[in-house]
Structure to design on (282 residues):
């Protein structure tokens, strides 16, 4: 995992596109259509946890009066890492989050009412429900939630990994996907692999991975192979459908978030029995 910050520092102590112009035509051509707007990616809506990063997120169908949600990693839980096979649903929590504006300045402290869903099985996510609605957050601080993309991300997509903890934005592309990503006792399915420019560090765990073109969240940053180890803690390996293992030292990964969308229904409540919901169940 891209370790929570305390663990990362402890380890250090021990170890010492632009638009293409239209081509001229011999006959009058209709006015060219404007290029699709590209949403500027900044810190607005991201949060800093005590040990990780995260973001205030909404589903495509969320309502403004729904209780807001915060997305981070399962391994960032205040209760520690979930065991392989463990799924947490509707567990009370009063965890606090520092809400950031576009410049990365803290504008508020948000508080959870519960852990709505969390696991490190098949994926590495935690979703907290807050005590305030999207409308209340928008009215008080002028900040909107990030929207989860309902579609699977595509290879080659230009992305940004936005760390609320470090107030740092990493820019790279989706290099491809790992059929299985194994790290210690955990296995994650269909993980996003970054190109090398996203050299994320401890404390970036839970950062939203944002599609540059749409501004939507397509994944959540979670791990990277730090020193070339094979399938060990902090050194995940890729395993293909035939069982072949590949180690990519220095390469980092994220977990796709489109899987969350079908599992959230009315009033932003998780319902793992909804059609299309493939998240692990308790």
């Amino acid at each position: 995992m891209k370790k929570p910050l305390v663990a990362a520092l402890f380890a250090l102590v021990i170890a010492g596109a632009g638009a293409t112009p239209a081509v001229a035509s011999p006959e009058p051509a209709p006015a060219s259509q404007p290029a699709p707007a590209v949403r500027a990616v900044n810190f607005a809506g991201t949060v800093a946890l005590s040990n990780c990063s995260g973001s205030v997120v909404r589903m495509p169908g969320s309502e403004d009066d729904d209780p807001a949600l915060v997305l981070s990693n399962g391994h960032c839980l205040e209760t520690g890492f979930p065991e392989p096979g463990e799924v947490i649903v509707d567990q009370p929590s009063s965890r606090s989050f520092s809400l950031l504006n576009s410049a990365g300045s803290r504008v508020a402290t948000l508080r959870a009412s519960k852990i709505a869903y969390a696991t490190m099985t098949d994926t590495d996510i935690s979703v907290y429900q807050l005590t305030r609605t999207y409308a209340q957050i928008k009215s008080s601080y002028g900040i909107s939630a990030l929207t989860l993309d309902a579609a699977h991300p595509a290879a080659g997509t230009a992305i940004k990994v936005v760390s609320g903890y470090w107030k740092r934005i990493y820019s790279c592309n989706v290099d491809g996907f790992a059929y299985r990503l194994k790290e210690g006792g955990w296995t994650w399915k269909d993980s996003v692999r970054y190109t090398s420019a996203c050299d994320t560090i401890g404390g970036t765990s839970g950062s939203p991975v944002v599609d540059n073109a749409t501004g939507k969240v397509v994944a959540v940053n979670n791990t990277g192979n730090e020193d070339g180890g094979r399938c060990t803690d902090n050194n995940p390996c890729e395993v293909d459908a035939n069982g072949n293992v590949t180690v990519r030292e220095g390469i980092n990964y994220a977990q796709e978030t489109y899987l969350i969308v079908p599992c959230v229904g009315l009033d932003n409540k998780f319902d793992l029995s909804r059609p299309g919901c493939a998240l692990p169940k308790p």
